[in-house]
Amino acid sequence: MRCAVYGCGADNQAKAFSREAKFFSFPKDKKVEGIWRHLCKRNDKFNVRSARICSKHFSDDDYKRNLKHELLPYKPKKYRLPKKEAIPSKNLPLLGKKFSLFALSKFCEKTRILKIIEIILYVLSLNYVNLPKIVDDDVRVLKNQNGGKLQK
Questions:
Q1: Rounded distance, CA 96 to CA 126, Å?
Q2: What integer best gives the mean pLDDT of the chain?
Q3: What global pTM score does this model have?
Q4: 86, 36 Cβ separation under 8 angstroms
């Protein structure tokens, strides 16, 4: 099962799955369901009956409080259930952006390295293509400034 939020990589079948992440069904209340669907920021149509949102997108205040579980050292399989009016508020895609901060944080290092390589290749291509012309122009300017003599 995968999280329905765009850019979230939570998947309970992945090898690196953290057991701390729980998956919750979309609410039955149509208004709250519409808000959840909107916050997923997905362009494709998806079935909310089978879609789930992981616990990474909820704050601690969004869960029902269960005193029985707090007082007794007992944690059942589904020990944290979201409130009926809970709205996902953490690690969501930005409005109007193609990628979410949540998704970009995972690929930040890779993207930064690729950007640096792209800049280096661009600078190298400029230097190799235009280097002789730039050097010749600089030499002419230096000669004109120094009365025809080139100084180091």
A1: 35
A2: 71
A3: 0.54
A4: no
